[in-house]
């Protein structure tokens, strides 16, 4: 670029040549100088606006301040709304955990007064720094809520595992013959050595005899699968239930069976009717429990159930 200088003081005109780089540097310098001037003007104006008592500057500052306050207020409302939602979620989860804990305590046979989930835990202690503490910031409060949420997740997982263990235990109990197979009647013969009622000799009785009228409902003492429905000379009509844990229960001298081999039965489900078939002196139910084919004392299993009214004095003998 060529610049020609013409002046009355000069005898002749002068020409100045500038390269492209020099032109760019000059232009950049002009821009920087303009920007610096604008910043300096703004700083001076804002700093001395009050002293200058300029109504326009006062109104401008007030408008900017009000806009900033509105912005801060909107952000605070958003934070409060978000935290309120989070607190509501945590409260709902705590209520669910309380109900879950009460159910687990009941399943574990823990007295309700020992675990009161509806009461706040007792807390206290001496105050520090003269009772004056530092207020939490919004960020610290949000971090605390996040930590509480993480702890609740951990407790939920652990209670879920505990519930699984208790569920397994409850299912196992349902497959143990702890329920008397008749709802009305009394013992006529117990497990163990006895005098045979037909030949009068000392023999070993592999079960218990429960006196009940013919046609009385016979109930399964535990859940399982029916493994035998047949007639045997000694037992008469029988129903065997396999409990899939090495235990089987037998119901003998039946007048009629209500199930067939392969049926899945639940604890307390009717499976037959009391009768007097086989080697008997009258209507009754012969009930026995075997483990891998070996007869066990049914009373040890029935004692685990709620059979006090039905067992009566005959059991205590």
Automatic annotation (TrEMBL):
InterPro entries: Cell_wall_metabolism_enzyme (IPR050570), Dup_hybrid_motif (IPR011055), M23ase_b-sheet_dom (IPR016047). Residues 204-298 form the M23ase beta-sheet core domain. The chain crosses the membrane at residues 23-44. The keyword NADP does not apply. The keyword Cell cycle does not apply. GO terms for molecular function: metalloendopeptidase activity. Keywords: Membrane, Transmembrane, Transmembrane helix. This is M23ase beta-sheet core domain-containing protein. It comes from Usitatibacter palustris.
